[in-house]
Amino acid sequence: MPEVDISNIASPPFQAPRHVAIIMDGNGRWAAARGLPRAEGHRRGVEALRRTVRAAGEIGIRFVTIFSFSAENWSRPASEVRELMGLLRRFIRNDLADLHKSKVRVRVIGERQSLDPEIGRLLVEAEELTKDNDGLTLVVAFNYGARQEIARAARRIAEEVAKGAIKAEAIDTDMVGRFLDAPDVPDPDLIIRTSGEQRLSNFLLWQAAYSELVFVPTYWPDFDRAALEAAIREYQQRERRFGGLVAKTGS
Ligand code: FPP
Question: Which of 141, 150, 190, 191 lies at a 20 to 30 A Cα distance from 161?
């Protein structure tokens, strides 16, 4: 029998995970490997982000969370912080209309008070414009740190207890979850980190309790649909038991 060339046949349709969260790492190393400024790595990172959101929607993923600026990123040189802030501004200005047309709903998690007011306004504008969209939800983690998010939730619960609105005995994991930044977004099924680093770096620590973690060597600017599909295939080979004995289906 002749050998069949299957290289051009699309991979079989698969059940997509509902929520994929991504630590987009390696922009700087991608640039350094090419003798380019780090800023160019971040710019190409935005292109990878566009590709990935489009592919995720086509694959049938319902929620994508991206780590776009961490609470710890303020310690980078001022010029790089400016560049990342400028990229967010441009991303919203240039891409919001397209995202809206594609029925993407934009959500933002992270600490807003200390942000430049103009950025704060853009984030609200993106959320407001897209709030009724029923396509993929893009959760942008901006000025985000998971420990800070949990501390904010604890503070707000303590305020409710002090007012007498909540009894201390009523605090359980469900309640803490309801005080996080996006309580209605389901926990990520899959967390992908690019660039070969293997840690969570203060990303979604509460929500990641049962997430599958997939680490890929690709630097973020090179990430594409094929890399996303490969990570999803790896996820599907894992058995998710949520602390029990019986494997749950991979979605
Ligand atoms: C990590 O690469 C990436 C970041 C700190 C920021 C991620 C930002 C983008 C992909 C573009 C911005 C997108 C929006 C919507 C603002 P790194 O700089 O840590 O790379 P390195 O570890 O190789 O130095």
Answer: 141
